[in-house]
Amino acid sequence: METQIFKIESPCADAEALEQAGAIIQNGGLVAFPTETVYGLGGNALDAASSAKIFSAKGRPQDNPLIVHIADMEQLDVLCHDIPDAARALANAYWPGPLTMVLPKNNCLPDTTTAGLDTVGIRMPAHPVARALIRCAGVPIAAPSANRSGKPSTTSFAHVLRDMEGRINAIIDGGKSEVGLESTVIEFDGNRARILRPGYITQEDIEAVLGPGMCLIAPGVREHVADGERVRSPGMKYRHYAPSAPVLAICGEARDVAREMQRRARGHENCAAIICDEYAQALPCRTIACGPQGDYAAQAHRLFDALRQLDRPEIDFILAQCPDEYGLGMAIANRLKRAAAFHVVQARHGCVLGLTGPTGAGKSAACAVFAERGAQILDCDALYHKMLETDETLLKTLYEIFPSAFRDGQFDRHALGKLVFSDPAALAQLNAAVLPLVRTRVETEITRADASGTDVLVLDAPTLFESGIDALCDFTLAVLAPPQLRIARISARDGLDGAYARLRVEGGQDDDFYLTRCDASVVNDGRLETLRAQIQTIWDRLFYGGKKS
Ligand code: TXA
Ligand code: MG
Known about the structure:
By secondary structure, the chain is an alpha/beta fold. The chain folds into three domains: 4-221, DHBP synthase; 247-346, Rossmann fold (3-Layer(aba) Sandwich), CATH 3.40.50.11030; 351-544, Rossmann fold, CATH 3.40.50. The protein contains 21 helices and 23 strands. The strands form four sheets. The protein has an eleven-stranded mixed sheet with strand order 1-8-2-3-7-4-6-5-9-10-11, sandwiched between helices. A five-stranded parallel sheet has the order 14-13-15-12-16, sandwiched between helices. Strands 18-21-17-22-23 form a five-stranded parallel sheet, with helices on both faces. It is elongated, with a radius of gyration of 31 Å.
């Protein structure tokens, strides 16, 4: 099918094109048109065949009803009956505008339009071209969003062209949709409203008309409804708004979200992010700035375009900042969570710094400086040794691999040490079995510290990279020192002679191992003031904008 394009900027200036588009709908054809929310894919709502064409052009499931658009209040009473006073009050307040009301339908509306329901969603759009089109068509217009089913709704002519060219009779190019998210859908329980899909008209807006407590939020708006559970609005059960790559929605303060994204993006070249303007520069991956922090109108306006821009085969996953759920934030969060198939995480509040380095470099001294500044320290070696005493999973694993490290059922650390000391294969086997368990335990400790409000947690982890604990960190720091100094420290600390201490130093990883893997390094040459000064610089980098001191 050849798709005709009409460019219509205003109903008055382009009256002829509007007449033609209206005639297409009157004759049973489909026309995509701009509204203030998103573009609609319109057909004659009174004609079952037209509605059937809409379902097939979109690839829409048959049980998901269409919204019927009207241009005048009189049409409401033609299409619906038993209209509650609350609905009339809301129509007076917010029509024309981004509010759809589900009401008992009259028989003039065919079952195909409403997917067999005895109710219909009615909306009077505010966009002048949309209303003029309805008047020209002379019939109410059934119109879902003009996107292929499951994809983000279309908020520009280019989006519609991409999804619908060749599938429908015409597209009206009317510029960008102002709101950018679909209308708020509500149903009534007497004179109380219930939001089935949040949108530009918020719960607060509705209660301003109906009174406090007179607008509820349906289950499925903020959280996932279990498969098979009945939903009030059929559209809520489908995967929606989704680019091809999986999306993860991240909630929390913007600064924390930025840090969470940075950590999750590290090492993943093909990931992408959507975050507010203030933090968009800071991320190491392809990033779309979705508007100023807290400016939900700007974020709503850009969201679907951002999701579409990231709908590209080379992108592996998408991290998206999820706003707080009040006001318009509820609508944005709802679309994002659904794009993410309800994969939602809370950003970690505190910063986790992984501190590592070769033996004798003075990691403990560096930790002490962090502790002076109020950081909490987690000694991963001590944690491992505690696990050797108390962690049954770990002991069971060790028993399976090294039964001879146990005497009378009791674990003997020295026996294990002897087994792996001069046998690299055995040591590798030990590490492969034990390090993942330690890592999991460290993860639990991080969660615990975060829940208790820790701002900075330093992991003192000699095997930071070998154990994979680095992936849990926001920042990694190497503590290095000249070899002579390390030999002297080891001799003093462990009571070893110089030659043996030298062997220990030479047998470990060299400085390059740490320098190539860590985000930063400090040199601990034994002077506390120099160490403090270096750590001050690191500390400032941990907080975007240096908010903490
Ligand atoms: O802003 C909008 O509402 C846009 C523009 C084009 O007006 N339209 C739109 O339509 O978003 P659509 O079909 O993509 O979404 C309609 C939503 C679906 O979630 C559907 O399940 C729900 O409204 N809905 C429609 N009629 C309903 C009914 N009778 N009962 C419950 N939910 C209904
Ligand atoms: Mg839709």
